[in-house]
Amino acid sequence: MSNLTVDQIIARHEASGRCFDVDGVRTFALDYGQGEPVLCLHGVPTSSYLFRKMLRSLESQGLRGIAVDLPGLGLTDRPEDFDYTFRGFARFLHRATEALGLQDGYHLVVHDIGGAIGLALAAEHPARIRSLTILNMFFDVVNFKKPLPMRPFELPILGEAELLTLQHPTWYLLFKAMGVSHIEDLPKEEVYAYVDLLKRADGGKAFLKIMRHFDHSQELQDLMHRAVDQPPYPVQAIWGAEDPLLDFEHFGKMVQQAAHLPQVHQLPSKHFFPEEMGPDIARLVAELVRQRPPAG
Q1: Coiled-coil region(s) at which residues (predicted)?
Q2: How far apart are CA 109 and CA 80, in angstroms?
Q3: How many Å separate Cα 146 from the centre of its chain?
Q4: Residue of 134, 193, 195, 199 with fewest CB within 10 Å of its CB?
């Protein structure tokens, strides 16, 4: 059990980051350390909070660890008229990298829907990418079907009802089943914070928009292939090998084949494994970073 309440944990999280403007959207980011920048892209229903420990591990590796809350999630604004699509997020993130001073390039880490978003970003701006690390994601966007626990969010009324049932106790059970392998090592309040960050300000309405705007186009698929098929930067994949949502045998091997990787690093955890395997992921990212000369 934590000595802090959920509100105190979120307040501490917010105080450890900073806000900046991206085209009028008040955007929150964690930005720790100095050195080669490593930009980590989260998925749903998470935010930069997922990477908070991993970024400190990147900092200890002599790197600058950055994670930006996507619009509609975490502590970033949730504008009604934002383009809550994968390509819309990729365009937003490109402008965010410029606001963060990353014009000389950055190393990219992607997870969950941050995979499709990040690969689109990399394909459209390959000269900015210095390395790519892929964490558990789906690659075949054309044929992808959401895991069963996530499908209700696609539908009107049912999605809103499902969101209402997502409270601290139900999220904790989901996180135990699908998120991490050793939830007993995490204070419950830290797990509960994910729910409060998801529903903050709008009750989760923007999250539902995201869930209802998944891009299954061949155009996006072609972009993603371009990002990993003999790109001008090194690529690796690190997989939470016990993930029941995006299992390695299907989803991991698809990434491995698409990126022509001789191996995929497998870690003993589930879907949200940056929560408990941050030092291991950071070490592997740092090893890949050292394969490239410093930016600038």
Answers
A1: none
A2: 28
A3: 16
A4: 199
Calpha distance 143→164 (Å, rounded): 29
Question: What local confidence, expressed as pLDDT, does residue 2 receive?
Answer: 67
Q: Tens digit of pLDDT for each residue in 97-136?
A: 999 999 999 999 999 999 999 999 999 999 999 999 999 9
For residue 65, give the 3-state DSSP assignment.
strand
Greatest Cα pair distance in the chain: 52
Q: What burial letters (b/e) apply to 92-119, b meaning 16+ CB within 10 Å?
A: bbbebbeebebeebbbbbbbbbbbbbbb
Handedness of CA 152, 238, 281, 93 (dihedral sign): negative
DSSP string over 143-206:
T----GGGGGGGSTTHHHHHHHH--HHHHHHHIIIII-S-GGGS-HHHHHHHHHHHHTTTTTHH
Interhelix angle for 86-99 vs 113-124, to 10°? 60
56 near 110, Cβ under 8 Å? no
Q: In whole angstroms, what is the distance from residue 167 CA to residue 163 CA? A: 8
- pLDDT tens column, 34-69: 999 999 999 999 999 999 999 999 999 999 999 999
> How many CB atoms sit inside 10 A of residue 36's CB?
24
Residues contacting 246, CB < 8 A, separation 6+: 112, 136, 137, 138, 147, 252, 271
Confidence of residue 148 (pLDDT cuts 50, 70, 90): confident
Residue 32: beta bridge partners? 65
State phi, psi for 66 to the nearest 5 degrees: -130, 140
Q: What residues pair up with 277 in beta bridges, in sequence order?
A: none
Q: What share of the chain is helix, strand, coil (3-state, %, to 5)?
A: 45, 15, 40
Helix 274-289 with 52-60: angle, nearest 10 deg: 30
